Amino acid sequence: MKRVTGYTVLAIVLFLIGFFIARNNSDEVKTFKRTQILLGTVVEIQVRDKDEKKAEEAISKAFAEVKRIDDLFTTYNEESPVWKINISSDTIIKIDNEIYNLLVLCDSVTKISDGCFDVSLDNLTRAWGFYTDNPHLPAKTAIDSALINCGWNNVKLIGNNSIIKKKNVGFNFGAIAKGYAVDKAIGLLKSLGVQSALVNAGGEIKVIGNDWKVGIQHPRDERDIVAAIKLENNSVATSGDYEQFFEVDGIRYHHILDPESGYPARGLQSVSIINQSNTLADALATAVFVMGKEKGMKLVEALDDTEAMIIDEQGKIFYSSGFEKFLIE
């Protein structure tokens, strides 16, 4: 009979300890995350899971979905459907069903915000140079000329995935596409059985599960947050004058343009909206920013399951009636 020595027993014990540690470690929920540059910003996707392979595959598929949305709504690529809609000389245009459905939501937000949200400002955005690395203060004549070919009154949704659009009027979905992409990525992760995840597209954030703590960027200090909130199966979107801007003679000119004046909206530094739909939250953040504190907060209070944090131009913070319950002290 083979003799079992003390060293052999010790080796067996150490092996069993290692086995159980390894098994226990494999059962631990870990956070897997990656970032990519998409939609003109940094997109981060986090998945909490025990299975690394499953998590990484889910993240890859979610990024592919965000890339699909980016390709669908971009105005930089001549092959994109939106580019083709913008340059079309037809009066009645048949468009992609997904784009049409988003335009239906845009139409609703435009109406409830009295025109302060408008995705037909592509020419105005171009006049300010926000498509380039060198935005500039345009002459008033250039702004007035751009406004002629802007405005939701030049667009009509007629059903059957068709629109009537005045020639030369162009769409720009920058105020809603990131939120929409976040919603679609979260929906895909859910379909894959992911039970805990976060998608962040430049401050438009949505989560699956609970115990997610996210920060809202300080509008005057990019290294700091102005508030931390807890999200559970919810989302937040922020629009601010610090995302794209330049200064002339000490005056800040940013990319959130007032559809009526053609100039950057004034009075606020940032608006954060909490809503189950990140698409709607994204659009409302822009709408409220343009509307201003009084009218914007009135709109938020009239909407179900919607909360807002508004920071005015002096840096003073205002909360809607239910926002503070999300704050982390």
UniProtKB/TrEMBL annotation:
Enzyme Commission number(s):
2.7.1.180
Task: Provide the catalytic activity annotation.
Answer: L-threonyl-[protein] + FAD = FMN-L-threonyl-[protein] + AMP + H(+)
**What Gene Ontology terms describe what this protein does at the molecular function level?**
metal ion binding; transferase activity
Q: Which InterPro entries match?
A: ApbE (IPR024932), ApbE-like_sf (IPR003374)
Gene3D superfamilies per UniProt:
ApbE-like domains
A matching Pfam family: ApbE
- Keyword line: FAD, Flavoprotein, Lipoprotein, Magnesium, Metal-binding, Transferase
Known cofactor(s) = Mg(2+); Mn(2+)
Note on cofactor: Magnesium. Can also use manganese.
Superkingdom of this protein's organism: Bacteria
Q: Where does Mg(2+) bind?
A: A175, D282, T286
Q: Which family does it belong to?
A: Belongs to the ApbE family.
The name of this protein is FAD:protein FMN transferase
**What organism is this sequence from?**
Ignavibacterium album (strain DSM 19864 / JCM 16511 / NBRC 101810 / Mat9-16)
Native organism taxonomy: Bacteria, Pseudomonadati, Ignavibacteriota, Ignavibacteria, Ignavibacteriales
